[in-house]
Write a structure and sequence with these properties.
The protein is an alpha+beta fold. It has three domains: 4-63, Arc Repressor Mutant, subunit A; 76-233, no CATH class; 239-316, Alpha-Beta Plaits, CATH 3.30.70. 42% of the residues lie in helices and 26% in strands. It contains eleven helices and 13 strands. The protein has helices spanning 4-17, 23-30, 34-46, 76-91, 97-111, 114-126, 142-154, 224-233, 251-260, 279-287, 300-316, and strands at 21-22, 51-54, 60-63, 127-129, 156-163, 169-182, 185-192, 197-202, 206-215, 239-245, 262-266, 269-276, 293-297.
């Protein structure tokens, strides 16, 4: 449901993204009549925005050529979302990613307040994204992610109030060595002074965190990515995956697959190998490519694909008059 302010901002966004737009289309998009569209245009002109119009049956609106609006102001949560999105794109190994991410990051940095810009740049330097085929993400506070990133970067201790998987609440001081995202969860890895050893903490279980003035020196050879893989990748049953994709596999698909495993070109196609912990998630992951493939290993993946096909088939047969029932 639109309100007047939202309609005004929507018109402004459309004018910036389009060379010109008709009054009829604007009226349809905003769910108003043509007279209301003209009133909103007058409001923009009163704000000093040079909106130009052409009269007639097919009249259009546009911004004066060469006019550029001031940059949008981002909240910390919005800036965090953009920064993480750029990191994820770059982590996928896509051919266009590096120059595009660098350019977009530089543009965003120019419009952010100095304090927020510094926090985002710190996050971009210390966060480790560990590729994993997983679809269920756990919500985590953006402010906490920025706070932990800052502590990792400045090598300052963190005081934590932490809830374990067994719902045990403890207070502890940690030397944070790294922060990583793996399997839909954010982790902080570091030395725990309470347990006198290395630990990995799920950030969604941190109920309170405070950066301490005490500094520490992280081990020079510490690899956050390797620690996460060795701690969690081997802590659960894993399936050895081997898939043969058709020879005309698109370049974009190759880049994504290489981010999660190895891809080897063979005379009859591309052989993809990886280790996964969920065959159901893997089935959905493979279907997303919309390419022909043959399952070599594990044979259990074939059943996961059949189950997915059955669920999709049942959804296709649902009618509006039918009651919703669990997909078996």
């Amino acid at each position: 449901m639109y309100n007047p302010t939202m309609r005004l901002l929507t018109i402004l966004e459309l004018l910036q993204s389009r060379e010109k737009i008709s009054g009829k289309e604007l009226a349809q998009r905003l769910e108003v009549d043509n007279r209301s569209v003209r009133r909103y245009m007058a409001m923009l002109q009163d704000l000093g925005i040079p909106v130009e119009s052409s009269r007639g049956r097919y009249g259009t609106y546009s911004l004066r050529p060469g006019f550029k609006l001031p940059p949008l102001m981002l909240t910390e949560e919005e800036a965090l979302a953009v920064a993480l999105g750029l990191l994820i794109i770059q982590s996928k190994g896509l051919a266009f990613a590096t120059p595009s991410v660098v350019g977009a990051s530089a543009k965003i940095a120019r419009v952010l307040p100095a304090n927020l810009r510094e926090r985002i740049q710190v996050l971009q330097q210390v966060v480790v994204l560990v590729p994993h085929i997983h679809y269920e993400a756990i919500m985590t506070s953006g402010e906490l992610i920025l706070q932990v990133s800052e502590a990792v970067y400045k090598q300052q201790q963190l005081w934590l109030s932490y809830r374990s998987a067994q719902n045990e609440h403890t207070k502890r001081v940690v030397d944070p060595y790294g922060i990583a995202y793996w399997a839909g969860r954010w982790y902080m890895v570091g030395y725990c002074h309470l347990r006198q050893g290395m630990r990995a903490y799920r950030l969604d279980r941190v109920t309170q965190a405070e950066i301490q003035p005490t500094s520490f020196e992280a081990p020079a050879d510490f690899d956050c990515r390797e620690y996460v893989l060795s701690s969690f990748g081997n802590a659960q049953p894993m399936w050895e995956l081997e898939i043969l994709f058709e020879p005309n596999l698109p370049e974009g698909s190759k880049s994504i697959l290489q981010a999660y495993g190895s891809l080897e070109e063979q005379p009859d196609g591309f052989c993809y190998r990886s280790r996964v912990d969920s065959l159901d998630d893997t089935a959905r992951f493979l279907i997303d490519f919309r390419c022909k493939f043959v399952v070599i290993n594990p044979p259990e993946l074939r059943q996961a694909l059949r189950q997915l096909a059955q669920e999709i088939s049942q959804l296709a047969e649902l009618n509006k008059s039918e009651e919703f029932v669990p997909v078996s």
